[in-house]
Amino acid sequence: MISNQEAAKFIREIGEFLEMKSIPFKPRAYEKAAEIIEGLEEEIAGIYNKGGLKALEDMPGIGVSIAEKIEELIKTGKLKYHAGLKKTIPVDLESFRGVEGLGPKTIFKLYKKLGVKNLKGLELVIKLGKIAKLKGFGQKSEENLKKGIAFVKKGGGRFVLGDILADVRQIENQLKKLKEVEKLIVAGSTRRRKETIGDVDILITSKNPKPIMDYFVKMSGVVRVTAKGVTKSAVKLKNGLDVDVRVVPEESFGAAANYFTGSKDHNIALRERAIKLGYKLNEYGLFKGEKRIAGKTEEDLYQALGLVYIEPEMRENTGEIELAEKKKLPKIIGYNDLLGDLQIQTNWSDGGNSIEEMARAAIKIGLEYILITDHTKRLAMARGLDEKRLKKQGEEIDAVNARLEREGIRFKILKGTECDILKDGSMDLSDEALSKLDIVGASVHSYFNLTEREQTERIKKAMQNPNVDIIFHPTGRIINRRDAYPVNMDELIKEAKKTGTVMEIDAYPDRLDLKDEYIRKCVEAGVKMSVSSDAHSYVHLPYLEYGLSQARRGFATKDDIINAWPLEKMLSFLKDGKKKY
DNA sequence: GCCGTTTTCGGCCCGACTGTTTTCAGTCG
Asked: Which residue gives the smallest C-alpha to C1' distance to B27?
């Protein structure tokens, strides 16, 4: 059966072929449809099997013509229209994907003039020095293509937010020190807190932008200047990160902030809304004819469009605009709302610090409680605890709690575990040992290659254990390194609801597991979640911020996140939830 | 090709920058 990715690829390529032929408007329609298909959570083949052509046509951006093409793809795995186009222009579009500055028109020109059909062919003609001699091309175009190819081959270049946010904040602070800089924000996917970001967009207001641009392109760490103008410059840093700076007039700051924060889909939806209301929206403001009616702040902009303010993390055009229109946007959890951290490893297993060190670090960042969750014996590599050592650890926790109390510190260390879920769904520790803990977390660390059915049953069985309170990092993915294990999340969420089990949002920067779309599903299903750092050292505690970003992207409120609740409320919720089951 | 509070035809987001041109096409966000 054809996957959403594959179907989207066919549709997108049709758009690109039509673009090569300079056919107006159709390319956009195909591109849009491809994006819709790619973004679907459900399998398109499943949608078709359930509801037929009609169900496809009912999707936004997909009409009769594209629906029929999808039908053909699902039924035959092939698409005649696509094949016909590819026959007349036999280029491997996929191979060029991601090369900067190389769009359909250029690919077409290279094919017609030089017979280039794929990336390899392009590399060859570059080597032969044929590009620069082509009409419309020059030395620079050849250089840029070369660099673009090298970059793609190096691995695409999306950065894990948590890996580069510190660098970004440093640049931010450097620029803020310039006296010409008035207002400054980091916009783009960084502001939306996407789990990975492609580049960084910085927005500045200034009456005298030239010195800012001069400074920016010479900042330490800059290896290449890709654009330098009066209002826009762009550089590449040593670590491969692209950073753009834009200078905008003060009165346009809100509109520009909105525009450069994106997402692109959110912006397009806002612009279409503006047009419907008889306005025009661009990065300089909201205009009625020639007159600017809003755009100094984002708040006034949304208001003028008849919307309540939408937090950056929610701006993905996945329903937030409709909710804002009806004033039904949820009040998402804030960055200071956590009272505890429910996943912390110590030097009892593979952590770097003692229980007391972790506790004192948590106190310092304002938390009121933590749960100690060292690994269990199956993870021998991590010096996992058996029942005996777990009992001993409990004694140490009691001792540290007593010490803190004597010092008059209001703080509680809870006894817990990150218990391995074994292959058959049973627990790595005895029920007796688990029942003595305050909170039990359970997680998968082995047999990632089970079938979806087996993996789903395995985790469901863990949820059915009356001692298990939270499923840690429920999908096991590591961003940029390892995909989630195959598992049916809808079924797990249903089972979590049924059994009163909490799902974790692991805040470790390359985990962020659950991801935003699953968080939203939990919110909708009324399944509670925890946001935890998974800290293996006290320096990891600030990772909670990334978990909160993810929770906000998933529309979670304080009410959805149990460690935003006072200790007693949280503990009694966990007890009751499992008892009912 | 898609869409609809200007609806079943006639619009489709919009501006900056680059590299090549010598007024603009292509790409990007």
From this structure: A101
Euclidean distance between CA atoms A10 and A73, whole angstroms: 9
Rounded CA separation A169/A200 (Å): 11
Residue A370 amino acid letter = I
Pairwise CA distance, residues A372 & A355, whole Å: 8
Report the predicted TM-score, pTM, of the whole model to 2 decimal places: 0.82
Q: Within 13 Å, how many C-alpha atoms sit on residue A88's CB side?
A: 10
Q: What is the pLDDT of residues A487-526, one digit of tens each?
A: 999 999 999 999 999 999 999 998 999 999 999 999 999 9
CA torsion sign for A333, A337, A340, A346 is positive
Q: How far is residue A337 from each of residues A332, A505, A557, measured CA to CA in Å?
A: 10, 15, 10
DSSP letter string, A204-216:
EE-S--HHHHHHH
Whether any strand B atom is under 7 angstroms from the Cβ of A347: the reply reads no
Instruction: Enumerate residues 6+ apart whose C-beta is below 8 A from A508.
Output: A162, A473, A533, A534, A540, A543, A546
Task: Give the HSE-up count for residue A365: Cα atoms under 13 Å, Cβ half-sphere.
Answer: 23
What do you get for the CA distance between the two ends of chain A, in Å? 38
Name the token pair of A477: 């993915």
In this complex, the nucleotide whose C1' atom is nearest to the CA atom of residue A99 is: B27
Q: Residue A276 CB: number of other CB atoms within 10 A?
A: 9
Residue-wise pLDDT tens digits, A426-459: 999 999 999 999 999 999 998 888 889 999 999 9
Residues 161-200 of A with CB under 7 A from strand B: 188, 198-199
